[in-house]
Amino acid sequence: MRDGYLAPIKTDSLGEKYVAENIEAFVENLPDFLLQREHPQYYGKTNLLSCKGIIYLPNVQWCERASEILRKRNINSYTIHSKKDNKSDIARFKKSDCGILLACQMCRYGFDDPQLAYVIIAQNPSDPSLVLQMVGRVAGVDLDKIGYVL
């Protein structure tokens, strides 16, 4: 990374261990979390719900459950995983002004969206290089934003 080339990143913690009961509580409360959690700086948008983000969950079932919960609250979400065709969801996400991309393994490498404001890593990757790849999704060339990683 060259100084002045990638967006700065602020990291934070969800404050919980990555165990099944904590993931369940996080997913069940996801709409309120996104509404209440402030983004440190993203073009005047104040909370995570008002901008675009990726949430990495442990598996397809958690992605589908999170999508169901968000849909019930009329929150734009796009579920990306190996058990479905993802091209139209990725295209719709990239065209949107705000929304949440839910993934477990996909979109770790090579996924770029300059408007991506945050990444939430709600899984425990076995390889530290995977964490770097997920964090890198918000470090795209945009010197006017701060990428936010939880």
TrEMBL record:
Q: Name one Pfam family in it.
A: Helicase_C
Which PROSITE patterns does this one have?
HELICASE_CTER
Q: Which domain of life is it from?
A: Bacteria
Q: Where is the signal peptide?
A: none
- Recall the taxonomic lineage recorded for the source organism: Bacteria, Pseudomonadati, Pseudomonadota, Gammaproteobacteria, Candidatus Berkiellales
Q: What is the protein name given in its UniProt record?
A: Helicase C-terminal domain-containing protein
What positions does the domain Helicase C-terminal occupy?
A: 43-150
User: Mind telling me which InterPro entries this protein's record contains?
Assistant: Helicase_C-like (IPR001650), P-loop_NTPase (IPR027417)
- Which SMART domains would you find in this protein's record? HELICc
